[in-house]
Write a structure and sequence with these properties.
alpha/beta, eight-stranded parallel β-barrel, four-stranded antiparallel sheet, 9 helices, binds flavin mononucleotide
Length: 313
């Protein structure tokens, strides 16, 4: 089987969105699709989540923005983005024209609780997207980062207002640093979220010991890659147990077996970030590997594996 040959074993439905396979590109690692068009076959994937979109254009954090370590990557891009008007007039129309089989989720950020709904209102009538992902969990901005997801009152407010501004599916992206991620997930679902993305990066810092300064220009950043795998697999299982809602699992996925761990823990789809930055064709290979894994084991539908972990803590 080749990466482009669709396999009905891999089709999933996530909050009413039909995906040809459960493999997405994670927000911030695929730009707005266009940036990857020459190096990856976007239409062989289940979908992609765009880079964050805010009301106003944002320049982002000072360089260096990204560094690597043995367990993965540390980034503080600072939600750099061209702003909602450019996404409305340029990026979504490009996606509508060029990405036909993969589904697009728009990642939304805000400085104030009402900003999320304002961004959605500007985008809602534009074709080229299947749903939204609310980023209430970014660790590397001064305002409008993790505080919305960490406080139940703000989280409820963000989600309620966003819910009132669209009928398209809404996913809420949570932080793996939350003391009780299952409780936050419940708040989001009760406020009208259709699903959860589990999870964003984890706050971290790396130090240049000669300079005695943080390596990243922003100082701290978000840890992504391999180090996140067991953390976010457990978080996925907790959120699945607590809500039963559709989940996009993310954190440290670089193989089909990594993806299957999230699926068995309760995810209906997975998003690949750091591994796709290192090798843009890796997500396509994960699709192929998932199809073979299922075929060899006689699994007719990968959707039947969601939440199939045999463990009851
Ligand atoms: C360079 C970079 C930029 C990111 N930008 C965003 C973003 O704009 N919005 C967001 O919700 N998550 C963002 N993330 C988090 C990823 O979408 C993902 O949740 C996280 O990296 C864990 O997946 P991974 O280990 O496969 O990278 C970013 C991650 C990286 C590495």
């Amino acid at each position: 089987m080749t990466a482009t040959m669709p396999s009905s074993r891999l089709t999933v439905s996530l909050a009413g969105i039909d995906l040809q396979n459960p493999v997405l590109l994670a927000s911030g690692t695929a730009g707005y699709g266009r940036e990857l068009a020459d190096i990856a076959r976007l239409d062989s994937l289940g979908g992609l989540v765009t880079k964050a979109v805010s009301l106003e254009p944002r320049p982002g954090a000072p360089a260096p923005r990204v560094t690597e370590f043995a367990g993965g990557m540390l980034n503080a891009v600072g939600l750099a983005n061209p702003g909602v008007e450019a996404v409305r007039s340029t990026h979504l129309p490009w996606l509508a024209e060029h990405v036909t089989r993969a589904r697009v989720f728009v990642n939304v950020v805000g400085r104030e609780v009402g900003d999320f709904a304002r961004v959605i209102e500007r985008l809602d009538d534009v074709p080229g997207k299947a749903g939204y992902e609310l980023n209430v969990s970014c660790p590397n901005v001064k305002a409008g980062g993790m505080e919305f997801g960490a406080d139940a009152v703000s989280l409820r407010d963000v989600v309620r207002r966003a819910r009132a501004s669209t009928r398209q599916p809404l996913f809420v992206k949570l932080s793996p640093a939350l003391p009780d991620i299952a409780a936050a997930a419940r708040v989001a679902v009760e406020a009208g979220a259709d699903g959860l993305t589990v999870a964003n990066t984890l706050p971290g810092m790396l130090i240049d010991v000669e300079q005695r300064k943080p390596v990243l220009g922003f100082g701290s950043g978000g840890v992504s890659g391999a180090a996140l795998l067991p953390i976010s697999v457990l978080a996925t299982w907790r959120v699945h147990k607590a809500t039963g809602a559709p989940i996009i699992g993310a954190g440290g996925i670089s193989t089909a077996v990594d993806a299957l761990q999230y699926i068995m823990a309760g995810a209906g789809a997975v998003a690949i970030g750091t591994a796709a930055l290192r090798d843009p064709r890796r997500p396509e290979r994960i699709v192929t590997e998932l199809a073979s894994w299922c075929e060899v084991r006689g699994v007719e539908s990968i959707a039947s594996l969601t939440g199939s972990l045999e463990w009851d803590a």
